[in-house]
Amino acid sequence: MKKKFILMGLALGLHSAYAQETISPAGPQSKPVFLFGGTIHIGNGKVIENGSIVFDKGKIIAIGTLVPPASASVTTIHLEGKHVYPGIIVPDSDLGLIEFESVRATIDAREVGEMNPSVRSLIAYNTDSKVINTLRSNGILLAQITPKGGIISGTSSVVQLDAWNWEDAAYKTDNGLHFFMPRQSGGGRRGPNGAEAPKTALDQVEGVRTFFREAKAYLQESKHTATNLKFEAMRPLFKKDQKLFIHCDLVKEMLIAIDFAKEFDLDVTIVGGADSWQIADLLKQANISVILNQPHSLPIMQDDDVDQPYKTAAQLQKAGVLYCLSNEGFWQQRNLGFEAGTAATYGLTKEEALSAVTINAAKILGIDKQTGTLEVGKDANITVSDGDLLDMKSSVIIHAFIQGREINLDNKQKQLSEKYHKKYGL
């Protein structure tokens, strides 16, 4: 009987092994690649018809209307009728930090305590997450991995989505500190801290202000009687090597964010920004950028237009505010390109909408010198689609490259689809 159970266990184990994905990170780019004949969307508003891109050793070395070389040392891919784009970038993501929201053991996005500037989300990033591949197959190649717990939740990092481990994945390390502002009165969506009573929320904001003042005073001292790890973690922020990402939606919360930027002379980005259209001129004057979260949602206030979330991007664009798009929930961030497509039907042009998920995001995350557009000298983070990348009906990604490496576009959902197509003869 014991032998029988052992054999059954081995059989189940083998079945599980073959049922899992066999997707490994791509190796380094081995020779130049020539993408020929596609419509190239640069990402900054420019489009090249029947254009070509050449990249080698992970970098773009030429772009334009080029003739493919007759050489076996160059891989030439013909893309007539196809569309070429920069890889989409997802800000404010808990991708790789949560696998199943209903299973506590797979959630690693939060830390105990309210003030945790020393927490680093990067070291918790799980490159084996099955969710990652579902984003890549929709043209998303980079993500900002963001901690969510407490009021000061820690630092985020930007990762590329084809790696063996978090060290390989790191694209820009510890690029920003995150402040989840306690909800002020006035309704709206709940953040990680829930809805707070007005007095309590104001007291908590004042507590954060005091924490920042004490940290700044500590860092100005030449010697310390004791090392304060939380204050030491604030050093890059005050040196402007990091941004302060303030998560808030309401006008009164964003006014507090503007005040923080002024008092502490910080580089601030608002995350959420549902009501940002109401104070777009103030945000422009204060040089504060916005990550618009959850574009596919109901308006935050009852008397707003029902389609206000769709229009906000165009209103910020008109006011000259630097903004990009994001999406709450790691499981739906694969749809970010399609949400940019919605914004393109509510006031943005198609190329402006593309910029909202590529170069604008790169600027806000501090990686625009490396990526965000298809330009000479930048990383070859490239997606190729059969149709319009921002259109759910026609977007089918057929090639994707991260730093010149062509990545595998398979995922668990594709495998299950193929499995049941075979089973039912579809």
Automatic annotation (TrEMBL):
Cross-referenced SUPFAM superfamilies: Composite domain of metallo-dependent hydrolases, Metallo-dependent hydrolases
One GO MF term attached to the UniProt entry: hydrolase activity, acting on carbon-nitrogen (but not peptide) bonds
Span of domain Amidohydrolase-related: 344-404
UniProt-listed InterPro entries: Amidohydro-rel (IPR006680), Metal-dep_hydrolase_composite (IPR011059), Metal_Hydrolase (IPR032466), Metallo-dep_Hydrolase (IPR051781)
Signal peptide as annotated in the record: 1-19
One Pfam family, short name: Amidohydro_1
UniProtKB keywords: Hydrolase, Signal
Keyword Hydrolase applies: yes
Annotated protein name in UniProt: Amidohydrolase
